[in-house]
Write a structure and sequence with these properties.
Length: 82
């Protein structure tokens, strides 16, 4: 049984990557921090945990208080535009 890609609700439909960082030194970004509602504050956090360059975990901070309000497997339907 294959489950469809989980999609997450975000504050807005825009995506502006504030940070795309390579923490493992292999030249591919593995942490992304993005703003989806244009206020300049991060509300979307994504992590590549297995080094294939694709998002494995997505966290959304809907009220931007620094604590994720939703966590899903995969890119949550919002893959980085890299
Ligand atoms: Ca924001
Ligand atoms: Ca991955
Ligand atoms: Ca929060």
């Amino acid at each position: 049984m294959t489950e469809p890609q989980e999609t997450v609700e975000t504050r807005g439909d825009d995506r502006v990557d504030l940070i795309a960082t390579d923490t493992t030194g292999d030249g591919k970004p593995d942490v992304w921090v993005a703003d989806t509602d244009g206020d300049g504050k991060p509300d979307l956090f994504q992590f590549d945990t297995n080094g294939d360059g694709k998002v494995d975990i997505t966290m959304v901070d809907l009220d931007q208080d620094g604590t994720p309000d939703a966590v899903v497997d995969g890119d949550g339907g919002l893959p980085p535009a890299v």
